[in-house]
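ok trying again, last paste got cut off:
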Amino acid sequence: MLASIPSPSSSSIEIGPLDLRAYGLMIAFGVLAAAWLSQKRWEARGGHGDDVATVAMWAVPAGLIGARVYHVLTDWRFDEGWAEPFKIWEGGLGIPGGVVAGVFAALWIMKRNGWDRPDMLDAMVPTLPLAQAIGRWGNWFNQELFGGPSDLPWAVEIDAEHAADAGHAGVETFQPTFLYESLWNLGLVVFLIWADRTQKLRRGAMLPLYIVGYLVARLWLETVRIDPATEVGGIRINIWMSVIGIVLAGGWLVLRGKRPDDDDESDSDSAGSDGVGVEQVEMALPDDSSS
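nice, full thing came through this time. structure:
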């Protein structure tokens, strides 16, 4: 049994003369791991690994921008002036915004290249929680987004400065919400891959299944975390967003998620009916002629 989980003494990693922010490194490692697994899964479906690299070149930057914009819009308490929202290396990425922006960018580049969108989504979406599972360890390095005080044997040790900032001066150990989310996401990777292999869901259904799977955990974690957060009606805004996401994605799965017996897997033109609302999403995407 662990006595507690120590926190790193620094939020950066020194490699020779370089001083690298651990938060950014964890995100980079997560992206690389997800890209590698996506390539393997897309190649197993008969696709080319370079297709995934092309999608990632657009989806990853869009996802990072969307995640930062979401954080800025939902947490506007900035005390260091106009430059603070741009300090991404200090933390502050909203996953809901990153998923929305990344998926839109991915769908646009898939459409532009004429790739089978539902099939490619099914190949790539189960790797998203892998990137999240690795990226969450950046919060451990930054000693942020932890839960309430705890004496559990796996509680995480937090420096006095960070504990005081969270309103718990004198408390040394807290709930390691980064660890809970990381482990949940690893389990979600396995579950999504298994669900995809059963072939019981419509093509493209991995996206709403992932949304429900992730947001169920996020809904609980938001009740454990004690970091300051914008509230609407006395409830953390990410709880509202989680509930909305679960209802919308879960509703799609219940109403349209099951694969009909006569579903034709060879008809890639059925993306609108077999996919996760791809037709509706593409209405918001620019035509190729305008790109």
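cool. Residues 49-74 form the longest helix (26 residues). Strands lie at 12-15, 18-21, 156-157, 173-174, 231-232, 235-236.
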